[in-house]
Specification:
The structure holds 2 protein chains of 2 kinds. Chain A is 52% helix and 11% strand. Chain A is α/β, with parallel strands linked by helices. In chain A, strand 2, helix 11 and strand 3 form a beta-alpha-beta unit. A 7-stranded mixed β-sheet of chain B has the order 3-4-2-5-1-6-7, with helices on one face. Chain B is globular and about 50 Å long. By secondary structure, chain B is α/β, with parallel strands linked by helices. Classes of the chains: A alpha/beta, B alpha/beta. The interface between A and B is medium-sized, with 19 and 22 residues.
Amino acid sequence: MTSPFRKSFQSVFNSLLMACGIDPAQSRGRLMLSLLFILPPPRPASYYARFFPHVNFGHLRIGDTIRIPLQFLWLTLMHVNPHEVQSLAAPKIKSSRPYVFRYIRNRVHVLSRRLSKRLHFRTKADFAHIQKLAESAANHRYWDNKLVSYLAYGVSAILALLCITTPFNTVSQLLFISLLWITALVIRNIPGQVVTLLLMVLSVVASTRYLWWRMTSTLNWDSSLDLIWGLLLLISELYTWTILLFGYAQTAWPLKRPPLTLPADSGIWPCVDVFIPTYNEPLKVVKPTVYAALGIDWPKDKLNIHLLDDGRREEFRCFAEQAGINYIARPSNEHAKAGNLNHALTKTNSEFIAIFDCDHIPTRSFLQLCMGWFLRDPKLALVQTPHHFYSADPFERNLGIFRTAPNEGELFYGLIQDGNDMWNATFFCGSCAIIKRAPLEEIGGIAVETVTEDAHTALKLQRLGYNSAYINIPQAAGLATESLSAHIGQRIRWARGMAQIFRLDNPFLGKGLKWTQRLCYSNAMLHFFNGIPRLVFLTAPLAFLLFHAYVIYAPALFVALYVLPHMAHATITNSRIQGPFRNSFWAEIYETVLSWYIARPTFVALFAPHKGTFNVTSKGDGVDKGYFDWTIALPYLLLIVLNIMGIIAGVWQLYSGPLDEVPTLILNLFWVLYNMVILGGAAAVALESKQVRMTHRVQLTLPIVLHLTNGKRIRGETADFSEGGISIVSAFIPAMQRDESVMVSLWRGKEEMTFPARVMSITPTQLRLRWELQNAQQESALVQCTFGRADAWVDWSKERKPDKPIESLATVISVGLLGYRRLFEQLLPRLKPTLRRIFTLNEFVDSFRPRAPVFMEKK
Amino acid sequence: MNVVSVTGITGGVGATTLVAQLAFALRARGNRVIAFDLSPHNMLRLHFGMPWAEGVGLVPHVLSGKPWNESAYRCENMVEFLPFGKCSEHEVAAFYRMLDKNPSWLAERLAELETDDNTYVLIDSPRSGHGLRAQAHALSNLILIVLEADTQAYAVLDQAQTSLSLTDADMAVLLLNGFDPTRTLDCDIAKLLRHTHAASLCPVTIHRDESVREALSSKRSLNEYAPYSQAESDFSTLTTWLIAWLANSPSSLR
């Protein structure tokens, strides 16, 4: 047994030997000889240079006289893991962010990754086998026996009552929640539906227990101020609990309905009208939609395309005539889009109606995939497909997370509608759907009583006993909202509309719906009432810190023991259910951004549903230059200021207040910090980044042929394409000049079509071209070769990593800190040069820091 | 042994070039390739780098009584080929007369070869010379009928069955060569072919690419001269298709 001192001396000695090129693992004799007589293998100077990655040996500086010895000393004394990289060639572009932020962010990410690894129990258990066992137990025929199942319901009801209502002291509660938590951690590794349901049960138990405790033992009936705050908070928590439970029920079992093949005889396929309503969008936004609709695979005599122009514009009429589609305009504009569609209903007569927003470009397989279900089920009135966006929404653009994480809409279209489909409660979303004419005319056309006419129409259809279906394959893609204010405007409209429906045509009341359908519709509507509860959560800790009001009248330890399991179980259960569609903790930011703005409209609509106007979401405008949207960010800033005041008050009380209040103070301070992070994230989104190009690029790999003027043809692939141009990668890019003409071939099925283009930029591996299309036929063909491909959106989420709650939390925290940095930069622009100088100095000092050598990865 | 005949539906559609490129591509995948030039134009040898003045070939050898296999050449990349040889019209006629008397002459010659499953015999069958072409087609596992996308080719196609004396239509596959999608007529004829001859049309289309002509002029294989050209990619895809087709066709189980 060698002593640690001897071991460390040994390792230092070994590293010195290795630095001299001598292999320390040889025998003593050879070692002695190598020291004196055997030369080390010759190595190029670059090998040694890699041990000093922060020194540029080609361009030595004065500071290197300190850097080199310091690094040498550090290498000999410390055991260093070399940093392996893919290629040494690409030099890292110096980031403009100060080093401190990067360091904090990296540490946070590394720690979170380590923590999540620790929490993930690694066992050799065969999870697939356990999954099979669980599923066979759940499918066992004994459960079919009515007596057995009722007995089971009864027993579980009693157990649930016990678990939820039994008061525990601290130790018992700790034991109980530990059991729940360990069970959850152990079973979460097992894939499958049974475990998802089990996790839901655990989460419901933890959350209901928390709520029961809140309602029975934490309200201070003595003080009226405490009571008011407490009741507000309690109502908000009741709301969240209701949404949680409804959400579990709604998404417990996504149906994942597959498309049905149509019968081989196309003679019996029904006729379809395609409606493309438009109001004030520019023609260039509507053209691709029309061209792609012309390319839909359906017998030509059974497909009618109609452009419904509420703006009554002459250029649209000419365009419709040239394209060979029908143009419908009406004299007035009442009831906006709903009125437009209803008017078109009177002018057409096909059995089915497909509706596309003017910027939602359909693929050629849309009708082929969706119409099968109509032929199978005569009572089916609606088939809805996801709204897919090929441009970044404000969150993705301003935070720079486009395509790395699921965006805000994916939870609804990827999971919630699929879960709704299980209960036959899919509702119409206004676009990318097919509705049967007869049921629609039975309910009097598209509903006009509320501003969210689409959901209301579906509700009315379902009340008459018709079914709806959801096919979870993106078959059309459109533009996301262009700016944060446009996004919020759209959500306000939806919130107001949903509140109106809740008030005027409540799904819980009235006949025609099953209770599961009522639940699903109500959940969709109740979701938009989260404005006020979210605001309450953001300000609740301030009640104690600023006004000394006990909103939760219980010792801090108890609060922690009840709240933490409630949040933790909800997080891991939601991560399991929603993981691929929304990363954990991002819902906080999305809801916070909207909370202020939807609080009032929903409140007003609940009591006076007919007030409020329909505001149209503008499409295709784009952000000219980057700016910070102060108007939108004002509420968050107010809340941030309030929370800062709360922190100051809390810290002051920590030092000067009574000692027994310290735990409560610390708890509330943590809560305030969490709120601050979320508010920082909300503020970060308000910095609108400049949208560099008007036509959005879509990354998709398609084979192309490059036709050069000298007769040669080069094989290549697209890296990305847009309506204006295309980017090509090839193993061999020919030498070309800027503005040189080429032709590019793209395929539509087996047909190859060529399009003229001009060179915009050229690098050895990539060629960027600008289209120079000469006529409408070419424009149409181009849309059908790119956006109209049936597989255009299939690989959209291929590159994504699975959701890990703790890493997601780390990302959210870093976004929050980013928000504060942006606020700081916006508020104090005059300080920017000074700050920059400080950061440069910081980087200079950091350049002396010894760092790990960089090597190429061994393949 | 897999025998593939390549015939052009009219002259000048690039059948000979196709045979040469297929030979190179098949060889690159490690197969043994023997290319027969049965066309009196005697052009296949140029793709393999034979000097123009050389007159050695299969027919002069056969007519002068020398062993036929001694007229074979082997390239650097181990492709073996038999040129037709420089012959006068009388010599060609004499050869055809001999063939008429011996209908299984080609079959006997091929039977003399020591081959295995990975051997591909590519035959550049002539437009003229009815007897030789018939013999070649009779022992082929696959007959590639090469055409370009123009109206003449399409018009001739209807009579292709009789004019090319195809005994077994299952083995005939139409191959569109020299396709230029920048030209309207090419696109239209291709669409028409896909509509009317869908069953016998090869899924691979060879693009018109200047690199092919330039490769021949510089006496190099297309893979050496322009490895990233579309034509090279097309020939490679065609070879893959060919190997798969031959492996799955019923005639290969003979």
